[in-house]
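hey can u check if this looks right to u? its 314 residues, i copy pasted from the old doc so theres a chance i mangled smth
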Amino acid sequence: MMVFWSDFISQNIHTNRFETDRSWVLLNPLEKSIKEKIEKIGLPLKDWDIKINYGIKTGFNDAFIIDGRKRKDLIIEDPRSEEIIKPLLRGRDIKRFGHENPDLWLLYIPWHFPLHNEPSITGASEMAEENFKRSYPAVYNHLLKYKNELTARNKEETGIRYEWYALQRWGSNYMDDFFKQKIIYPNMTKFVPFFLDNSGFMQNDKSFMIVGNHLEFLVAFLNSSLFKYCFLNDFPELQGGTRELRKIFFDKIPVIRIDDKINDKFKKILDNMSDFRIKNLPTKQIEKEIDNMIFDLYNLTDLECEEIGFIEIN
């Protein structure tokens, strides 16, 4: 028995070099070959023409996040309220190629609003508050009910750096990105879902967003079986099988660069998938087609069906 075991080891042993500054897992020869092939022709996402940022931190959700009924009441009371009430997705609402519809809305109120574009205002401003109270009375009165809690959020900031009625972190350096096409994904998840948003959803701080070029292809790749097979273990696993999808880990993921023509092909198939979802039709076949498009880009063709089959069952 000992001789048999020794022969088995000598015939199947493989040597690997481990880098101490990267996470690592043990792979068999086929797994190692596939991962090396994918990484070799990819460019790290940090070198792509994209930006990755957090969602919004309110500091007190009960005040700033409302349901559809409260939204309707505020708009009835003052139609201008609609200008600053934005649809919201939380990390838990994001699904693969889609999202749940929680009917939640965010009161989007930057620091110094509505004078937030005045460069002369650098701290909490009574003038800004007076303008807000006059311009959006229904929303102001709603927030006034929570003034004690909002004032207590951060003693070093609230009432000093910004007004009590403003969001704690509102993406001041990238606020316009919320209204662009973007990929949204949760910061911690078991299922690693990505959603391409073209509707201007706001998002909470339990999620990230990616803006930039070729997002149709990128969301397809991130949702593909190839991405999960090759790169899922690049993200730390937390308790219960949850993965942490922080930017620092995404920056290192190598992804093949494509041109506008290829991106348009992915846009077309994603538009088709959107039509299916609107009609409540199954999209499994479309997702399979997307996987095959990704395989083709990486030259994992029928001639290398062993690789494709191995990816699909893992």
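The longest helix spans residues 260-278.
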